[in-house]
Amino acid sequence: QIQLGESGGGSVQAGGSLTLSCAASGGTFGVYHMGWFRQTPGKEREIVARINWGSGDTYYVDSVKGRFTISRDNANKDLYLQMASLKPEDTAMYYCNAVGSAASGFKPLCFTTPCWGQGTQVTVSS
Fold first, then answer.
1. Sequential pLDDT tens for the chain (126 residues)
2. Residue 8: left (phi > 0), alpha (psi -120 to 50), or beta?
3. What residues contact 97, with CB distance under 8 A and at least 6 apart?
């Protein structure tokens, strides 16, 4: 069974940088478009960024445009999120998963068991 594992989070001051990694164990991402989501207590998980499987085209939520960069490796087993100019409002638990279309509202697609990895915490202090 494929499982997703996120890493790279930490505590940084505003303006700092972090790079998150997502690894697929037991398989690859296949033909799924992959993305990063984040969640804070009491709020729903939201899409942050998505990268298309074939074209490599990317999507970013407005709040992170110009600061975050999503990428994936050629072996299709690792996904990354480079985060720069971090703000306190970026504080959240970050997760990776397959992502549906824009028409679906970029909903997560559960192609692994369990659906979500353990996530990686990002904390940005002012």
1. 889 999 999 999 999 999 999 999 999 998 899 999 999 999 999 999 999 988 899 999 999 999 999 999 988 889 999 999 999 999 999 999 999 998 999 999 988 889 999 999 999 999
2. left
3. 4, 34, 35, 37, 108, 109, 110, 111, 112, 115, 116
Give me the phi and psi of 17, to 5 degrees please: -135, 150
CB atoms within 10 A of CB 54: 7
Strand order in the sheet with 68-72: 3-7, 18-25, 78-83, 68-72
Q: For residue 32, what are its two tokens?
A: 């799924």
